Amino acid sequence: MVSKGGLHYWMQSEDFDLAHHFVHVALPKPGRIRELLAMVSRVHCGHLDRAYPLWQMYLIEGLADGRFAVYIKVHHALMDGIAGIRLLMRSMSTNLDTSLTLPPPWEVPTQRSKPRHLPLPSPTSGGLSALRSLAREHVGSVVPVVRELRSNVRDIIRRNPDFVFAGQAPRTIFNQKVSATRRFAAQSYSTPRIKAVAEAYGATANDVVLAMCAGALRRYLLDLGELPKRPLVAAVPVSVRREGSDHANEVSFTFCHLATHLYNPEARLRAINSCMDYNKAHLQRLSPDQSLVCSAFKLLPGALNAVTRLVDNSALANVIISHVPGPRRPLYWQGAKLCGLYPASLVVDSGALNITLISRHDFVDVGLIACRKAVPQVQRLLQYLEDALLELEATIHATVIPN
Amino acid sequence: MVSKGGLHYWMQSEDFDLAHHFVHVALPKPGRIRELLAMVSRVHCGHLDRAYPLWQMYLIEGLADGRFAVYIKVHHALMDGIAGIRLLMRSMSTNLDTSLTLPPPWEVPTQRSKPRHLPLPSPTSGGLSALRSLAREHVGSVVPVVRELRSNVRDIIRRNPDFVFAGQAPRTIFNQKVSATRRFAAQSYSTPRIKAVAEAYGATANDVVLAMCAGALRRYLLDLGELPKRPLVAAVPVSVRREGSDHANEVSFTFCHLATHLYNPEARLRAINSCMDYNKAHLQRLSPDQSLVCSAFKLLPGALNAVTRLVDNSALANVIISHVPGPRRPLYWQGAKLCGLYPASLVVDSGALNITLISRHDFVDVGLIACRKAVPQVQRLLQYLEDALLELEATIHATVIPN
Lengths: 403, 403
Known about the structure:
2 copies of one chain form a homodimer.
Chain A: E1 2-4, E2 7-9, H1 18-21, E3 22-26, H2 33-44, E4 55-61, E5 69-74, H3 81-90, H4 127-138, H5 142-157, E6 182-190, H6 191-201, H7 205-223, E7 233-239, E8 251-257, H8 265-284, H9 288-308, E9 319-325, E10 332-333, E11 336-337, E12 353-359, E13 363-371, H10 380-400
Parallel strand pairs in A: 3-4, 7-9, 9-12
Antiparallel strand pairs in A: 1-2, 4-5, 6-13, 7-8, 10-11, 12-13
Helix pairs in contact in A: 5-9, 6-7, 6-10, 7-8, 7-10
């Protein structure tokens, strides 16, 4: 990626240096998951070198149980999480034998959808005229977006509990300046168990996942004496990606309050379910482009604040919770079965914790990434997520089989 | 280290997190020196996190021959190379048995010499009045420094070949903007062989080491078709540290031309010897403080240029060659013998290669650190250094035993 005249462009790299991008490392003894997470925490720190194409792949050997791990670091400027998973899925096979003939992942070309608007401005085309066309493309979005924003204002006046707006989030330890050091924690949770809870309450699996996060975050903050009285707000990325594309970023946002002020896990799940239903109904009224424009409006106060730092104690949201669909069948590469797919996302000032989840057929793989200093002992959340699922299961049994 | 009112201060860290500073890692198979150097190249990239005390220590296991390696990363704001080596030497023992009772290196306190001038300004003392006192302390240096600088001007007019001034260096591939990725290469060279060459020519071991670097750099640049017609200039740090102190930075500079335009290795050594003798004579006329002030004057044009970027193709020097005295006897820690002590220094814009050498009783340990992109295949220099020593040895035999 090069910068010219204030705009950024993609360039073909002339001297490709594979040894910089493909790295072979090993875990120290005893080679437990603990050592693996410590290594990923370390290699996840620091920026990718802008002098090279913005990706690296680590092959990690030395796990005590004979498995190996692969850590892939890709700049968000190249692709979002869904694009990354799609590319990974296309670089693996659902068939063990076929997988033996697969090339390394970096030799699999990305599948680009047709450009939706117009080609990105090239160094030769005038940047200004390109921007003007781009603006013209978005004029059609104005009416529905204004309608949506007007409805938001009505919701604020009526104090609709399902409407969450930017800046409603209470200040927490997650909303502070972050250090440069990261802590990564990861674990898998049973998909069938999550689906069973969802079914029992007429909610979605995503609602249950959010309720698990709510329960875990509530307990984690209680431990530290840091639970705010008002409920935490999660920013929940929503993909507006079309089928077939695994390139670039196509992500909108909704906000969800996590009802962390409520003691009862069932009540938390119901509040989350109701808030997400509201969000979905509003998103369905907008096209992907309109929802992008709309979320830009919603994020505007936060973005302005990030630049001006006028309100130092405002939090756009407390935590980003990103739930991404993963492979629905077992995958293989060169005869090795994929056992887990743990996302390590990014942490920014005032967003010291990110929870990303990938749903596979058998497990939901969770990756927690946090600033090591702002979010101490982040690995505790792994147990608390499991405990939150157990609590929700207990409420079903309490409801279904009253004594 | 915290910043307040534009000045930086040391602070006691309140929540010390050893797991951040002490890191346990392992080499992938086959665990050769090659894998070790690749790992050190990687962990040397990137900044230390300013939210923590500025050091980290890596214990590296998995070397095929059963040895282990320790990589220590310390910010230059904490200590210079000599201070680091002194601290390391005090954390080890010359006695195998005694070494079994030694604490880990981070528990050995630094040995601070008495403050030479006055205590560093504290957040409570007025910064300005402290600066004023510091300036007053340096007034005594004015006369000898002016005398020295006047002599420098005379040398320029008379074209004294032994006088090297800042900016005389030709532009080379080492003098470009650097990437964020580093390459580390390291090897040991026989101290007795180097001393034998020095003795044969009435030069110092340091002159021979510089001549080895000159020969290696000449051949490396010739390979790439990048050898400039004018000789390369090395910036050679000179310690002005007093006995007993192993704290902070106490380093002055001289410049040495490396006579890389000469084909004859003997002629290169004689030119280097003559230039370094000239430098030494001048340094001896100055006190440590005066030499610091003097080197500040010599570096001024380069520093101004770094800020203003007026002259984009000027190079203050082509390469930094730092030669540091190391332990004179074998050292042990917890029963393990120290086999090599390889310095990994720093690389900056327009200084893409740094050569640092530590002289021990039996070997001179060389560490090359380079920008991976600007200085390709830097490990070639390891062989060329050995070849340069062989060439110098051959010239002795040619001189001493004429056929």
